[in-house]
Each structure stands twice: as C-alpha cells, then as structure tokens.
C-alpha cells in the first residue's frame, strides 16, 4: 500500500516539475514575442531602460523614429509620458540626412543626454541615454 502511494506521489511530483518548466518556457516565448517588430525594422529607435512594471502608466518598450518623434505629457504626442516632471511637449527628435538630432522644447525640468542637460540642439549618437523626467531611453541607431 505504501509502495503504491510513494509511486503515485513520485509521478505527481514529476508532472508538477514539467508544468513548471512549461510555464517558464511559455513566459520566455511571450516576452520575446512582445518585442515590437516595427522598432526592429527601423534604422533608429528608442528603447526604454526603466522596468515597465515600475511605471504606473502604459508605456511601450520600443519607439521607432520615423522622421520626427515628439515626447511629452500630452496624449497626442508620439510618446506619451504621464509623468509630473515631463512638460506637455518636452522634446523632439528629428532625422536629417541619416543623422538624428534632439531638441528640448523649452521644458520646465529639462532633458538630459548621458547625465548632461541639453541646452541647444544636440546630435544623437548610438548608445546615448536620454532622460525625460524619471524615464530613461537608450538611443539606438543602426544606420
């Protein structure tokens, strides 16, 4: 009798282990699938550095830069950041002949690139870290 119960527990335990492994693989698949193919096809994009679950509003992981990208607190911006330290129209990124330039749109709290405050139009380089309010983006240029 005890032998039968121990065999039963052994198989139940093995099934639980397989279910756990399956759920881990499923989570990895869903995470990979959530990467925006639009951003992966773009020659330049912004990648969110902050953890998305630490931000109390909806935000994407990637934002492709197609000609012009405006970031701000207004919902009609290309990138909407509901952050109290972000101005309604905070900054603009413009592409000009394969080069990308960032312009602060007279925001109240400023825009920072690699921890330095932006005072004028700045040319972006691959790997620059852009901070807007409490949000940080990595600029990626594959061009």
Structure write-up:
The protein has 143 residues and is of the alpha+beta class. It folds into two domains: 34 residues; 99 residues, Sandwich (Tumour Suppressor Smad4), CATH 2.60.200.20. Helix content is 26%, strand content 31%. Strands 2-1-11-10-7-8 form a six-stranded antiparallel sheet. Strand 10 and strand 11 form a beta hairpin.
Q: Share of helix among residues?
A: 25-40%
CATH topology label of the largest domain: Tumour Suppressor Smad4
Give the biggest beta sheet.
6 strands, antiparallel
| Terminal CA distance | 70 Å
Compute the number of helices.
2
CATH C-level name of the largest domain: Mainly Beta
Lay out the secondary structure.
Blueprint: H1 2-33, H2 37-41, E1 44-48, E2 62-64, E3 68-72, E4 79-80, E5 91-96, E6 99-104, E7 111-113, E8 116-117, E9 122-123, E10 129-132, E11 135-141
Parallel strand pairs: 3-4
Antiparallel strand pairs: 1-2, 1-11, 3-5, 5-6, 6-9, 7-8, 7-10, 10-11
């Amino acid at each position: 009798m005890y032998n039968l119960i121990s065999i039963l527990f052994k198989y139940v335990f093995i099934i639980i282990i397989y279910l756990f492994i399956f759920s881990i693989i499923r989570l990895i698949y869903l995470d990979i699938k959530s990467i925006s193919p639009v951003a992966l096809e773009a020659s330049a994009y912004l990648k969110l550095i902050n953890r998305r679950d630490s931000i109390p509003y909806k935000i994407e992981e990637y934002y492709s830069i197609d000609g012009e990208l405006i970031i701000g607190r207004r919902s009609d911006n290309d990138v909407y950041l509901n952050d109290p330290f972000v101005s309604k129209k905070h900054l603009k990124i413009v592409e000009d002949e394969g080069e990308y330039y960032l312009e602060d749109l007279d925001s109240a709290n400023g825009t920072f690139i690699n921890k330095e405050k932006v005072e004028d139009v700045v040319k972006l380089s691959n790997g620059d870290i852009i901070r807007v309010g409490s949000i940080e983006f990595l600029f990626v240029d594959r061009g």
